[in-house]
From TrEMBL:
It comes from Nocardioides aromaticivorans. Keywords: DNA-binding, Transcription, Transcription regulation. InterPro entries: Homeodomain-like_sf (IPR009057), HTH-type_TetR-like_transc_reg (IPR050109), HTH_TetR (IPR001647), TetR_C_22 (IPR041674). This is HTH tetR-type domain-containing protein. PANTHER family: HTH-TYPE TRANSCRIPTIONAL REGULATOR BETI, HTH-TYPE TRANSCRIPTIONAL REGULATOR RUTR. Residues 1-31 are annotated as: Disordered. The lineage of its organism: Bacteria, Bacillati, Actinomycetota, Actinomycetes, Propionibacteriales. Pfam families: TetR_C_22, TetR_N. Residues 1-12 have a biased composition (Polar residues).
Amino acid sequence: MTSASVEGSTTDPVPGAVGPTRRRLPTQARSRERVERILDAAAQLVVADGVEGLTTRSIAETAGLPVASLYQYFADKEAVLLALCERDMAEMDEQVAEDLAAAGELTMAGLVETSMRAFVKVYHRRPAFMQIWMRGRTNTAVYDYGRHHNKRITENLLAYAADLGLIDQGGYSDAELTAIGELAVELGDRAFQLAFERDPHGDEFLIDEAIDLVAGYLQKVTAR
């Protein structure tokens, strides 16, 4: 799976998304540390007060920085939220890759469960993410970045499953197989939103059901 850096240097362009929202790309250690402080402060405030109560002033104050310093890196609070999503999704990609590498021999159901539980691990470490993702849909850049990220997940996991011989394409065309993969990822995404809607740790029953739902749907293209 691919990653997106907080500095923006490795972030893939998002088709149809708003252009870069950060005014300055940090290259020095001090600048990178300031950006992390800003993102950590924003995440802390989202968990405490929700997305709606977030302001650039409150972020800067919590980070212990002047507001002017925040504006060196971010145009507004929406840009901060986008950067938080980029950072957290990159961490999810890394966790999935790490867990799949350690999983040993996999079936399709095992691939689904390992990948989805890797996301849950990051949701637990980054509790602000799900609040931003559920309630930040008015941020076009966040929404578009999330959709693009889901497409990348689909491409990477389908390729991984094919390499392992887990896919029986049957009578489906490549385009249809991709559509099935994208729908599976979207189903998992929406089901996890329900699981984490009222409980930041996630409803364990709904998490298990979400994994079963996606694995069951993919049985139509599963070789083993």
